[in-house]
Specification:
This protein has 144 residues and is mainly alpha-helical. The protein has five helices and no strands. It is elongated, with a radius of gyration of 21 Å.
Length: 144
């Protein structure tokens, strides 16, 4: 619940920032002239980028939260040792089981993402989470 409140607060701050950018852009439009219109256009582009990035991150958070609520760790998960869990998760994707269609299993990618996160590798954790989300969407589409 605390994380949801934090996200809501950040969205409100972003909305206030967007409103402020819109107000500044409107001021430049009222001034007129080539410089005023150019600055207004630049600010509107910055505003559009802000809204797009915020929307994309919210969708990512919702999708990864959905995967987290549906995920159940496998029986061979090693919670005590992050390095051993990382190796087990990576081997599940790259090893002999990869030939059995694990590459499209969102659970395997999400397990790897959690292992990366436990190893404090946030960049690869996000990339693996994105792969898990894509695999989950493909699985849902294949089901109908």
């Amino acid at each position: 619940m605390r994380q949801k409140l934090l996200v809501a607060a950040l969205l409100l701050i972003t909305a206030a920032y967007a409103w402020g950018l819109g107000w500044i852009a409107w001021g430049f439009v009222r001034v007129g002239g080539a410089v005023g219109w150019g600055l207004a256009l630049g600010i509107v582009l910055l505003l559009a980028l802000t809204v797009w990035v915020t929307w994309r991150e919210v969708l990512f958070g919702l999708a990864s939260g959905d995967l987290a609520s549906r995920y159940e760790p496998p029986a061979d998960a090693i919670a005590e040792d992050p390095a051993a869990e990382f190796e087990a998760a990576r081997e599940a994707l790259e090893g002999e089981t990869a030939a059995d269609g694990v590459q499209d299993d969102w659970r395997a990618w999400f397990r790897l993402a959690l292992a990366y996160d436990a190893m404090r590798d946030r960049r690869n954790a996000r990339l693996s989470t994105r792969r898990a989300i894509e695999a989950s969407k493909r699985t849902a589409a294949a089901r109908g």
